[in-house]
Amino acid sequence: MNADHVPTAITVHQASRTLELSYGEQSYQLPFEFLRVYSPSAEVRGHGPGQEVLQTGKRNVEIKAIEPVGHYAIRPLFSDGHDSGIYSWDLLHSFCLNQQGMWEAYLRQLEAAGYTRESGRDQASGNTQRHGCAN
Predict the structure, then answer these.
(1) How many domains is the chain partitioned into structurally?
(2) Cβ(41)–Cβ(82) below 8 Å
(3) Which of 8, 33, 96, 101 could pair with 28 in a Cys bridge, judged by C-beta atoms 3.0 to 4.6 Å apart?
(4) What is the structure's pLDDT at 121?
(5) How far apart are alpha carbons 17 and 126 in whole angstroms?
(6) Does 123 fall in a domain?
(7) In angstroms, what CA-CA distances link 123 with 36, 43, 44, 55, 61?
(8) pLDDT-based confidence at 134, cuts 50/70/90?
(9) What is the pLDDT of residues 54-107, one digit of tens each?
(10) pTM of whole model > 0.85?
(11) Is residue 129 a part of any domain in this protein?
(12) 135 in a domain, yes or no?
C-alpha cells in the first residue's frame, strides 16, 4: 500500500450520490453507480480473466453505510444488497485517477450488450431482440 493513496478524508454525499475522497488539498468524487459497477468483488470481477459480469441497472444505487476493513480498505454497503466488495486505498486512488476512461468503457460495454444505465439484466433496451432463454 502506498501511503500517498490513503485518503485524508472520506465524505458520503447522499444527495449527489457521490463518495468524496480527499488527499490533502486534492479531492475527487466517485459516483455510487461507478463504485458499484466496478466493485472488486468476485461477484462482479469473477475469479479470473474473462469471468467479469456486466453490472446493469445501477444508476440509482445508494451507499447505505461504509465499514472500515483494517487500515487498508473500506467496504460499502449498497442499497441493492451488494456488500462483498473490499475497496483498498490503492484501488480507490486508481479509480480517482482513471474514472473518466473507466466510465466511458463501461458505457460502451452497456451499449454493446443492449442495456441502458436504467435497465437491469432482464430488461434490455430496445436495441436488441432477445429470443429463448434469458442469460
Answers:
(1) 1
(2) yes
(3) 96
(4) 64
(5) 27
(6) no
(7) 19, 20, 19, 12, 17
(8) very low
(9) 999 999 999 999 999 999 999 999 999 999 999 999 999 999 999 999 999 999
(10) yes
(11) no
(12) no
Please tell me the distance from the alpha carbon of residue 129 to that of residue 102, in angstroms, as a whole number. 27
Segments forming the whole domain that contains residue 50: 3-113
Beta strands 73-78; 63-69: pairing state:
antiparallel
Q: For cell 486534492, what's the residue? A: 26
Maximum alpha-carbon separation in the chain: 54
Tell me if 71 is assigned to some domain. Answer: yes
**Cell representation of residue 73:** 480498505
Q: Domain containing 79 — which CATH number? A: 3.30.2020.30
Q: Is the Cβ–Cβ distance between 21 and 65 less than 8 Å?
A: no
Burial class (CB in 10 A: 0-12, 13-18, 19+), 49: exposed
